Amino acid sequence: MYKVTAKHIVTDSDGIVKVYFLNDTPFTFDILDDMIKQDEAIIDEAIHWPTLSIEEIHQKSAYLLEEGLHPLLNSVELHPESILPDIL
Fold first, then answer.
1. For residue 11, how many other CB atoms are within 10 A of its CB?
2. How far is it, in rounded angstroms, from Cα 42 to Cα 40?
3. What pLDDT was estimated at residue 83?
4. Short-list 29, 34, 25, CA closest to 8
5. Least confident window among 7-21, 24-38, 50-64, 74-88
């Protein structure tokens, strides 16, 4: 069973974004409004984690797709506490 989690992360090109992870592998992200990016709690969380490049997120997403494990595009058994993007 896989678990999807989300963290606010600083990226190399888009500043702070909300990144979704499948068992610690990043696979997609949400761009945040400027107002949300200025929230102290969001900033504190984001600076706690290593910076990611958008390219790295895309590469990891492609890997999950190749393995048939992309939680948005493949049928993957997810832990009930998984956090998915709002697009679903």
1. 19
2. 5
3. 93
4. 29
5. 74-88
pTM flag (> 0.90): yes
C-alpha dihedral (87, 43, 79, 55), degrees to nearest 10: 60
> Could you give the count of Cα atoms lying within 13 Å of 57 in the half-sphere of its Cβ?
21
3-state secondary structure (DSSP) of residue 78:
strand
Give the contacts of 65 (CB within 8 A, at least 6 positions apart).
73, 74
pLDDT digits 0-9 by tens, 38-84: 999 999 999 999 999 999 999 999 999 999 999 999 999 999 999 99
d(CA 29, CA 46): 13
